Task: inverse folding
């Protein structure tokens, strides 16, 4: 077998400035794409070998899109046309600013410029029980686990004798009323209305309850009150049970207890309630505020000239955004592109230019013909127009010709047929401790 | 949590004859589709909740197609239009012919007619070591594991210092020169030529060796000598190392030893060398010959009038096929359709008609513009014409409008761009014992 000791990073030495980028999300790839290998050596670290289009991840969880449609291999995005570009599917474990190196399990690497673009990870606020039993929705394997869990639950509900147990299989509780939670809830509601009755003719899906639990006083808190109100109306039209100003106290895999005491029996708790910055060891604590690196308008981390942070992991405060930029794709994309420009200016002996966020507006989709959009200058759209805008923007930004086509076809196909193509339990979902999934695969495997 | 004791099959009682089908492959679904719910109650058991188009499985393993493109949810194929049809994603553990019931983990079910359509499973000929370390290619998770293993091996090779270890990572040994082995080898050769050099600019893929090991004296033994000869030529043109009349003695996960003593260091041994019928407990031993149920021309299992076997699990000998029909899709499809006709004849008080196999010919693809076809009347095609025929036939037979489109687009796209879209390590491949995969994920996960 191969041991880690036998591996090394194998990054060629160079006389060019070496830019080390940690993270292949929207920020990282937009920075790397704009840096020419003639001027810089670019080294990109990312745990997965693909770039994920996370705004559509909920589509994978609800069997609307295949995982491959929202992910693009990083080596395909940065092919031979990218001179002196080096991708390593490796986790960076430590930053050593004094020696200007980063540490990985197979060796250290010197950097001239280090860019932290690690984004966020699910935040369970220290609740180990919820971490253990709930379904987060941050990565493709999360979405595939949730897809399997949902489909397995329907199959189990179709075979259970106990009405209370059936109800707990048909109760889906989504915690978090942000874009992910709202879009997940809407997608499940469409599945309940258009797909499941045809798949399970014997079953009564009016029993299927979709709960959306939000701690604040409105859904989609990052968006305008107008859009929140429209979204609330859409969700209720689609039969989603919305609980505002409600926090989750505990979940034991069987019963979720809400603050205030209300209890809901469910086998599936979707955790879209919060994220925390994916910080890296070695940085001084004073550079971090609430899980994000404090950066100036040049994205330089406080106290450093050669360490930068972009996207969700960066906290840049401006007059327009006193609490930092919204945690969506656009600021990350723009900061990545802007930082590339600044690196080039530096080479030309010019000074950095401060980052200015250009707000293109934000969108959320609740269902077919139901979406909301906040555009600049306080323009708020809803309904079909917003839905078309959402569709266009997402297909446009999906990276990779093929993926766009596959996604487009899936969309057109689903729009006209109300069909979902990918209701596959490819890997049964199984928790390590003997829970429902274990029982499910017992049904299929005897050996 | 949910316990199996809380589940039951929940199949409604009926006065109609109940046809129980075990297996949702080509035979099972073509039988079920032709039986009307007005005349019969149809109960289909299949371990997965989807029907797989297995002839294209190798495409998933080599990152050419996404898994969802070759699989169709069974509940989507048999929707509300199919009256009194019942699918259960459950394994049948036993047949009790005396009581005319089948046994599952959640209860027994009575049948009037039982159809065994379980197909085949990988056959390691009792070699536990090969079973443990090799990569079979029978199910979608097999293909995804192999895809991850191949991509992980390239990433590791790109980071290893030891030339011998790099070689063992770049050596791929495919055991079995049948259609699966040949198509897998051809697809890997195209990947080596058109994809990998662009993905790994620093690496020399002339070092990558693809071995195809076959025990008999020609590749594609089921096809005509002409096609075998053409295929052999194509494979050699593509730089595949073919070893005929060669058997594998052992493989310890590091070194494969061939009968005769030759050894090849490889981390990836693809096992396409044999299949065995997936028989079920409870049937008398005399009904089974070399892993298949002996059936008459009506597909009735020897000694039974109410138990049938179709497709790969059935051994029907005719003058034209003294050793049974070839283990491909066509006989299964035709036997399923024919048995449906016979069941309907029975209802009309008519007698069964004997099955007659209509040979539409057989096809195999080696690479772009390289395929072979054996057509009736000893017509043998090769090259571009056969390739187009292969493409047409496979797209035509892929079940489901959407999947056909996705597959077609992938094909057109790949044909013109030499690109493969789905080179994703979505789940790192990890063996239970601490092998290479374990090391690989260590690179990515610290927590």
Result:
């Amino acid at each position: 077998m191969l041991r880690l000791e036998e591996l090394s990073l194998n990054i060629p030495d160079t006389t060019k400035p070496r830019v080390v980028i940690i993270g292949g999300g929207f920020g990282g790839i937009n920075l790397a794409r704009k840096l020419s290998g003639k001027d810089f050596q670019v080294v990109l670290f990312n745990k997965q070998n693909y770039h994920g289009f996370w705004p559509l991840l909920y589509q994978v969880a609800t069997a609307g899109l295949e995982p491959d449609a929202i992910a693009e291999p990083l080596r395909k995005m940065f092919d031979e046309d990218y001179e002196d570009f080096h991708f390593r599917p490796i986790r960076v474990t430590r930053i050593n600013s004094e020696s200007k190196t980063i540490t990985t399990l197979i060796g250290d690497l010197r950097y001239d410029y280090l860019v932290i673009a690690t984004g966020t990870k699910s935040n369970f606020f220290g609740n180990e029980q919820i971490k253990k039993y709930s379904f987060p929705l941050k990565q493709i394997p999360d979405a595939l686990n949730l897809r399997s869990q949902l489909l397995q639950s329907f199959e189990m509900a179709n075979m259970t004798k106990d009405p209370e147990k059936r109800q707990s299989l048909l109760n889906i509780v989504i915690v978090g009323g942000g874009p992910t939670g709202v879009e997940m809830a809407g997608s499940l509601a469409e599945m309940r209305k258009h797909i499941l009755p045809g798949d399970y003719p014997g079953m009564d899906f009016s029993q299927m309850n979709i709960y959306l639990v939000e701690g604040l006083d409105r859904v989609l808190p990052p968006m305008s009150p107008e859009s929140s109100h429209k979204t609330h109306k859409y969700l209720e039209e689609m039969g989603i049970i919305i609980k505002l100003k409600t926090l989750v106290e505990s979940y034991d895999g069987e019963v979720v207890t809400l603050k205030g005491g209300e209890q809901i029996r469910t086998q599936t708790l979707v955790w879209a309630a919060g994220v925390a910055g994916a910080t890296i060891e070695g940085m001084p604590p004073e550079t971090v505020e609430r899980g994000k690196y404090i950066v100036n308008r040049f994205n330089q981390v406080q106290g450093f000239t050669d360490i930068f942070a972009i996207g969700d992991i960066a906290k840049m405060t401006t007059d327009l955004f006193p609490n930092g930029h919204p945690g969506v794709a656009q600021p990350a994309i723009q900061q990545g592109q802007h930082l590339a420009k600044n690196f080039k200016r530096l080479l030309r002996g010019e000074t950095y230019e401060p980052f200015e966020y250009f707000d293109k507006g934000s969108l959320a989709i609740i269902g077919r013909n139901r979406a909301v959009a906040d555009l600049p200058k306080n323009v708020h759209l809803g309904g079909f127009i917003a839905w078309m805008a959402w569709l266009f923007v997402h297909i446009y930004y999906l990276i990779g010709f093929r993926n766009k086509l596959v996604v487009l076809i899936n969309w057109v196909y689903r729009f006209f047929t109300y069909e979902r193509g990918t209701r596959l339990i490819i890997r049964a979902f199984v928790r390590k401790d003997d829970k429902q999934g274990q029982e499910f695969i017992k049904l299929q495997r005897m050996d």
